[in-house]
Amino acid sequence: MTNEKRTPRGMWIVAILVVLLLILHQDNWLWHDDTLVLGFLPIGLFWHLCLSVAACLTWWLATVIAWPGDDDVQSEEEVAS
Amino acid sequence: MNQPGLPQLIIMLLYLGVLLALGLFSSRLFKGTKEDYQVASHSIGPFMLLMSLFGTTMTAFALVGSSGEAYKEGIGVYGMLASSSGIVHSLCFFLIGVRVWKLARKNGYTTQIEFFRDRLESDFIGLLLFPCLVGLIIPYLLIGVIGSGGVVQSLTAGLAPNTFPVLHPDGTPNFASHGGIPPWLGSLVICIVVLIYVFFGGMRGTTWANTLQTMVFMVLGVVTFYVIATKLGGKESLFANLRALSESIPEDKATRAHMSQSKFFTYLLIPLSVGMFPHIFQHWMTAKSANSFKLPVIFHPIFIMIVWLPCVLVGTWATGSLIPDTMQLPSNPNAILPFLVTKLTGATFGGKVLAGLLAAGILAAIMSSLDSQFLCMGTIFTNDILTHYRGKENVSDAQQVLYTRLFIILIVAITYGLSLGNVRSVFAMGVWCFSGFAALLPIVVAAIYWRGLSAAGAISGVFAAISCWGILFYKAVDQESLRTFTLKLPFGEDGTPIMPVVVMLLSSTITMIVVSLLTPKPSDKTLAKFFS
Description:
The structure holds two protein chains of two kinds.
Chain A: H1 8-25, E1 36-37, E2 41-42, H2 43-65, H3 76-80
Antiparallel strand pairs in A: 1-2
Chain B: H1 6-27, H2 34-39, H3 46-57, H4 60-73, H5 76-107, H6 112-120, H7 124-155, H8 183-233, H9 238-247, H10 251-254, H11 261-266, H12 278-285, H13 294-317, H14 336-345, H15 349-390, H16 397-419, H17 426-449, H18 455-478, E1 487-489, E2 496-498, H19 500-518, H20 524-531
Antiparallel strand pairs in B: 1-2
Helix pairs in contact in B: 1-8, 1-15, 3-8, 3-12, 3-13, 3-15, 4-13, 4-15, 5-13, 6-7, 7-8, 7-15, 7-16, 7-17, 7-18, 8-9, 8-13, 8-14, 8-15, 8-16, 12-15, 14-15, 15-16, 17-18, 17-19, 18-19
């Protein structure tokens, strides 16, 4: 795969999603909430598990629309030879 | 086999034997070159890069420390350390790792210092960074070495009470560790095993071992969670056990009622340290291609979740009302997980085997960081000091491999020696060590993305970061609050606490930018190598 899928728009989308994740990470509204989701997961913990999953999806999207790498790198030695 | 601690000891020894065999086998593929020894000839594909990067970032803290911290602080520990790392670590791999890999492959760097020296046309930046990196990595190494000794002792408790007694001040046995292999011996064996497979296998052996160890500690972590939930909950189904156990958690541990929101927020900066860890940089260099980074970038947050969720839940359950009154929990929170495993499963042979497997899992997490750090220390000494000043033409590849190995032995010996001293606060040192690396991050980000960075700017930034770190560290030691030290902003009734890393990071960033704006940039030829 080359970097041809990387677009400024893709980078912006990923940047916005990452900033959103960082904002959602500060879940002050759940600070004192002791609700158990599914009967066993404290909601503050559940929220951050969801963030872990959301981070995984965001980074997957980043590799599709904003991947900064390509495989055409050659070392100086390889170029010389 | 009925002797307490014996099955655990046998399983641990078997596991260490497997690691040794893996290291020795990988050495058969060794090509004899420095590049092969230090970065496995850039041959590591996506899966092994994912496993080795993840294994390297997860230390003793991941299994033992996370459950211990959750026992003390409650569920907020997950957000503070795990979900934040899932976002920030992948961000560093994405923004720094891939870019640095491309520059390093193009220009032939193996270490951070080689990269900075070339980028900034400055020899001094290397001389400055070398002691900073080594000085900050030593506490990180100590966490692993000391953690391994403690784990081995906890999980072999009861093995030889007459030979290795551990007593309370009143003379009664401390059953959490009484009769277990003493920490000095456990740490010594772990150091020797890691040393052997790193010595012979180099980066290839390290990566193979890390891949195996990451699988081991992830699988065994989940198995242990299931067993503890079943034994502690006492219900028929796993779901019923989970419900019963979570309902038993006190309210302050099921929420973050006692956790400062501003401290929680500023903790977000600590995982930035991964972008400046020298051993992570070296692992990046092993990648076969830029695309090899995709799996680590995507799956790192989920892997962290798989390891941390069970540990945090077990830690909070230990504060709950379902812990039997007869079970006297250890005073050291880091001993909670091994203690629960031993107590809840120790009566049966299967339970002892599980305890042994858990010990192997914890040791796997510890060793998968230690090996990379030892190898990295040997590499930067050989490349950035010895070969750099003697001249590449005066040191053959074989000699560089030899010197790397000799320096690894020296670092292992120094670390082990330090671990025998009075280092009770070493777990608190972990946060300080990470903060120091995070404070250095602006230098690498600017080196990659800002043409205006000058050598003087980078050097001033490093000085600012380290000076700030030193001053705040001194204040924390002076106040005897290494673990809990925070700074307070003058807002709110009692002030707003923030982590020291905020000030360190700001000081290095501002200094670097201001000085760079006022001083000459590297030559156009150099800038063209990095920004073309």
